[in-house]
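Note on ligand handling. Small-molecule inputs were canonicalized before submission; formal charges were left as drawn, and no protonation-state enumeration was performed. Where a ligand contained multiple stereocentres, the stereochemistry in the source SMILES was retained. For zinc ion, this procedure yielded the string shown in the input block below.
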Amino acid sequence: MTISYISKRKESTVTQTLSEHFETVRTFDSLDNFIPTDNEFNSIVVSLEFGEESIENFIIKLRKSDKHFITPLFFENNGAFLYFDTKITIIEVVERTKNVKTLYNEIGHHNYTSWENKILSYFYTRPDYNIVPKLDKHKEMFYYFPLVEYFYDGQEDYFYWLEDMANQNIFSKVKLVDRLFCCPFCFSALMKFSDHCPSCGSINIRNEKFIHCFTCGHVAPESNFLKNERFVCPSCKAKLKLIGEDYDRPLENGVCMDCGNYHIDSKLEVSCLTCHKTFTTEDLSKKFIYEYKLTEFGRNQIKFGTVSSADLIVNALNYIDLNYFTFTLNWSIQMQRRYKEEMFSIIALKLTLSEKTSSYDLLLEFSKFLRRTFRTTDFCSKIDNNSFIFLFPKTDSAGLDVLKSRIDDFIKSIKLNRGKFEVKIELFTSTKENVEEETAQQLLAKLANKL
Ligand SMILES: [Zn+2]
Ligand SMILES: [Zn+2]
Ligand SMILES: [Zn+2]
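Structure output:
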């Protein structure tokens, strides 16, 4: 086995020990000199003398490279070997290196160009690792996964990917770490909450105690009733002495200083500090932060190279399985036969990816788009791995044209880092006549065939 030792000082005892246990030992005196080398090593030892920041950058370059994304990394401090923060012996260095090598041999015949495949093979070769989130108040989600960020080549959207992997049972959720509210549009957890007048939207509102006069029914803030330290109704001039007999406390407790509106509840408004959209608390999305681990099933999928990313789209929508979709469609057809105004529309869609296209990148963009575009009453199902079908209840052909043009605009706007893709779309809008003879199965088959 081969090992490289990167150190300015190049401790002779370290070089000596390494050469006693590895066939080849090569030394480098800087991290920058190591990166461009063509040599592949089974293991790397880095001296801590380079400092935390340089080493961090080095790891990122290593994990993103095509040669060293899997290579075990050890540290050296004053002649001692470290694995993360733990002191280990040279025997353990050898054992770890050997284990990673053996496991990588099982899967090394696959093509590992995308970051997803690289990280999956990384975890495959480290069966004892969990994918652990770390809290950081500067991150959009307040959490991040340090190990994943070494590999990921974009922003923090790898959260979808983790979810996707968990939904496919590639990863299991070993621990629920936290649950967060986040923006329904961009899933950032950085949000600002403010309460507003429900009538005019002003933030210039005040909490007040209210009084309800039994004599005339007048409702107003307590301050309007106060006259020489007694309560007198400003409307009917009745003296209000006994609560429950002359007056009571209504539910209202807020006054708008701008429009004068009295209200029971102010309107709580949320603004996302990341995408700057504004919404109400009911729209808030809930996000769960988990610690993950590769499953046995996942290990097999990696071994046979069968991990897919198509479930991303599915998770973004009201996804139902094809049987239930067909059932819902049948019901819609029957309704349309009975009532002229019960129309519905369908979009069938097939994605064809070129070999170089990262299906994950594409599906991620697509799933975000679908989440923005579709209503909660719309349904989606998967015909096969890359074909999807959407049902839009109460949508006529004009509504369908709007959806279609949004999809077209979106497809034109996608810029992928690498590769190409094609989208084929088939549309259908029901009328009383065109569903008279047809069953859901026939209709679905007809659309799928045209794709
Ligand atoms: Zn107001
Ligand atoms: Zn009154
Ligand atoms: Zn947002």
